[in-house]
Amino acid sequence: MDTKAKIVEKKEWKEIAERILQRERCTVLTLGYIDTGKTSFLKFLSETIKNNGKKVSIIDCDVGQSNIGPPGCMGLLNNNGESLWYFVGDVFPYDHAKIITGLLELLSKTDSPYVLVDTTGLILGKGRSLKKAKIKVLKPDIIMAFQREDELEGILKDFSDYEIIRERVENIEFTSREKRREIRKKLWKKYLKNSKIKIFKGTKLRNTFLFSGKEIEKETIEKIIGNKVYWCEKIPEGYFIVADDYKMYEDMIILKKGFERGLIAGFIKDDICMGIGTVDGIDFERKEIYILTNFEKEFDFIEFGRIRINEDGEEIGRVYNLTY
Ligand SMILES: Nc1ncnc2c1ncn2[C@@H]1O[C@H](COP(=O)(O)OP(=O)(O)OP(=O)(O)O)[C@@H](O)[C@H]1O
Ligand SMILES: [Mg+2]
């Protein structure tokens, strides 16, 4: 774990750890708004469990302030040191179905009786239903609820039959959005270092409309939209088009050429993300994808993400409507 969370020791935390260690196995889920000490607590707890000679796995659902694996991925750190990633493709947990699937996938690969699950600080608005879904599927033995006031109670009231440990948060300053970006920038650079452009042709793509349909004449679409078209295919939703400019049409998904530059991509094998890269370009005629990556092993599919980053690790935008 190499981000802002430090080893913090609190008397109450020691007592909680001792209680947990009395059980033979235990699943712990952290809940809390941003900067409430969720990750610091889990760091402390995992160290304590290990120091007691027990096995512990940590699942990190935070795709923004990732502690295991690169940003844009959920991570599992097993007791045997193995680190597994699940590709989400954005630093915001926008796709709740994906986060829940990822949680179940990583959970199925844990190797320890103690499983600690860390989450993002998204607890308001739609974050409520995401957190509720996590509790439903994980069925944690203990919910660690970190609150400044009573901001979690709306979620917790539906889980009164669970063991909930409430922690009052005081004196923790908020990490600015800029600082969070800075932390991620370092992580992106770390995970993309020594990347070279590799060409992928005939590679299976998994979560995108691109190259999933039947190619059609570009001229037909050019006449309708009045712009140069680079790629066009018929898909069940209508048409998927890459063109010189973007316009709204009811049955057309149009992406402006150049959308792909810097887009994060994951190399997937058996549902696990084995490595990441960023798209340098796509030759639509030749169906070739150029990806900057240091990944060199075997994989089954490429998945595209939503976030775009430059070679310096700075986040430069998002791509909508390419993936589903
Ligand atoms: N109990 C505490 N008292 C004082 N400082 C703390 C405490 N717990 C954590 N901190 C510090 O507060 C900051 C935020 O902690 P941490 O990253 O663990 O929070 P988090 O809830 O995981 O945040 P995020 O929502 O970004 O994941 C860190 O710098 C950490 O060292
Ligand atoms: Mg955290």
CATH topology of the largest domain: Rossmann fold
Number of helices: 7
Over the alpha carbons, how many angstroms does the gyration radius reach? Answer: 22 Å
Name given to the CATH homologous superfamily of the largest domain: P-loop containing nucleotide triphosphate hydrolases
CATH architecture of the largest domain: 3-Layer(aba) Sandwich
**Proportion of beta-strand residues:** 25-35%
CATH C-level category of the largest domain: Alpha Beta
Describe this structure in words.
- It contains seven helices and 17 strands.
- The longest helix has 16 residues, at about 175-190.
- With about 325 residues, the protein is an alpha/beta fold.
- The radius of gyration is 22 Å and the shape is elongated.
- The protein folds into two domains: about 10-175, P-loop containing nucleotide triphosphate hydrolases (Rossmann fold), CATH 3.40.50.300; about 195-320, no CATH class.
- The strands form three sheets. A seven-stranded mixed beta sheet has the order 4-3-2-5-1-6-7, with helices on both faces. Strands 8-15-14-13-16-17 form a six-stranded antiparallel beta sheet.
- It has helices at about 10-20, 40-50, 95-105, 125-140, 155, 175-190, 220-225, and strands at about 25-30, 55-60, 75, 85, 115-120, 140-145, 165-170, 195-200, 215, 230-235, 240-245, 250-255, 265-270, 270-285, 290-295, 300-310, 315-320.
- The mean pLDDT is about 95.
- Helix 1 packs across helix 2.
- The structure holds adenosine-5'-triphosphate (ATP) and magnesium ion.
- The site of adenosine-5'-triphosphate (ATP) has 18 residues, from helix 2.
